[in-house]
Structure formats: C-alpha cells, structure tokens
Amino acid sequence: MARRSLLLVVLMMGLVFWGSTPGAAQDEASVRAKAYCIMDADTGKVLDSQNPQMMLPPASTLKVGTALMALNNLKLTDRVPVSGYAASAPPSKINVRPGEVYSVNDMLYAILLASANDASRAMAERISGSEERFGRFMTAKLREMGAYRTNFITANGLPADGQYTTAYDLAHIFRQAMKNPTFAKIMSTKTYELNNGKEVRNHNRFLFTTPLAVAGKTGYTRASRHTYVGMFQNADRRIIVALLGSNGKWADLRVLIEKGFEEAGAPIAKLPPAEEQLKRSPRYYSKSRGKKKVSARSSRKRTAVNAAIVPMASTKVPRRR
Description:
- With 321 residues, the chain is of the alpha+beta class.
- It has helices at residues 2-20, 22-30, 63-73, 84-87, 104-112, 117-128, 131-144, 167-177, 181-187, 206-209, 249-263, 296-301; strands spanning 35-40, 46-50, 79-81, 101-103, 191-193, 199-201, 213-221, 225-234, 237-246, 316-317.
- The strands form 3 sheets. Strands 2-1-9-8-7 form a 5-stranded antiparallel β-sheet, with helices on both faces. Strands 6-5-10 form a 3-stranded mixed β-sheet, with no helix packed on it.
- Strand 1 and strand 2 form a beta hairpin.
- Helix 3 packs parallel to helix 6 (117-128), helix 5 (104-112) crosses helix 6 (117-128) and helix 6 packs across helix 7 (131-144).
- The chain is globular, with a radius of gyration of 22 Å.
C-alpha cells in the first residue's frame, strides 16, 4: 500500500511538472535570437529579456540613430548633397548619384523605409563632414541619452570593427526616437513617393500584416544575422521589442510580441506566420522611367537590386513640393 501511494505521488508530481513547463520551454526554445529585450514603451520598464546587455552588431537598426541625429540637428527642408563616397555604398540603396541634392525629408524616408545605405552616408556627411566623425558624434549623443553599451562607427550599420549595441540599448534608443513625432510618422509609413518620382517601401512587414504594429526597423548582414527593433500596441498598452542575432526574425518576433503583451497585462491571440508569406515586391520603381519594373535578371546587374522601391498608391504619402 505504501509503495502504491509513493508511486501515485511520483506520478502526480510528474504530471504537474510536465503540464506546467512545456509551453514556456517551447517559447524559450523557439526564440533563436542571441539577445532580445521587451520594454514597456511608456515606462521604459523591461518586461522580459535574454542577454539584454550582450554587445552585438546592429546592422541597419543603427539607422534609427542616424535618423534621430538628423532630426535633432537639421531641418526637413535642409539640402543634402551626395558625394562619390555616399553614392558608392553597397545595397540596400536608392541609387543616388554624385552631385545630386536631396531634402532631409526625402533622405529620412529613404533611410528609414528603404534602409538606404547611400542616403545614410550622405546624411552623415551633411551633419558631421565625414562618416567617421559622424559615428563618433552619434555615439556620444546616444550615450548621453543612456545607451552606454553602444558604439557606432558607420551611419548605415554595414559591418565595422568595434561597432556594437545591445538589445537593451536598441530598445531604449527606439523609445527615445519614437518621442519625436516626425520620426514616428515616417516609421509608420508604408510607402512614400520621393521628389524624384521613386517610391520607397517600408521593410517592416508587420505594418502590412497586423494592426498591432506601430513602427519598426529591420536589419541584416551576414555578421549580424537578422536584427529588429519596433513598437507594437494593443489597446492602451505599448511595447518595444528589440532583437539581435536572429536566424528566424519573423518567427522570433511573433513569440516575443505575444510574450510582451502577456507580460504587459494585455494578452493577444497567437499570431499567424503571415510575414513569411508576403510576396517580394519589385525592387525598383520610377515614374520617370514610364513606370517600368526592372526584371529579375537586369535587377541583379544593377545596384538597385535592394532598393525596395515599389508602387503602392493606396498607402503612399504624397510627396512634399
């Protein structure tokens, strides 16, 4: 009888153990990112995290800092000349040419929506005279804001020795940037027509798949893997999710968004895998060229291959004149 009672107790403990932990264990196992941070957007409180202070390369999420520096130091109507160095940046890019001049406003849309490396370099030179000086300037300003474990070398997030941030710093930087109404407006825009007739499309697929998405910036290099920082809102609760070093960005983010709103007291239903199902859009679109899309073969031969410029009239913001 005693042996039977003992066996029953062991079985009950096993059922409690296995019944209470698999969901959490599955969630943790399904997040493949090296580091993440989920932050309350209103208070700055960290709701959940994994390796939030691990220093990792940011890829194009760095452009959040570049855009914030531009908004804090230039007017939207200021002009940004393009140098040969800026024009020579590798994709993603909008194919600016040496000698061309753009407004700060157009450059910001190119940087934040199309993730344009060439526009980022031109903006850095406009602010500080060179990308190298701009990197030091931006790092100093971001550390003044509280991003103490961040060191940016470039204006676009392309690989550079000694360039890093943390998931916590990235979430903190984005939270500060979203307090700027112009930054928030640009980041929430799906497509935008530049004054030269090109239309840039936001790389943040969540804007096209879920009403929870407010704004976000993607990033990728071979060294950094996938990176992301963005804001989501459910009713009156807003969260920021920052992710670094992911091999499955969209899947990781869905888990973290669900986790974040659960921690914030506003749980949501499981998000479907809609982001991976979105079809790739044409990479280049120019009204000045008769609205002709570049073929896949020709686009591989041109630096426009990653410009992510497409027509989407129903959601575009009219250009400024």
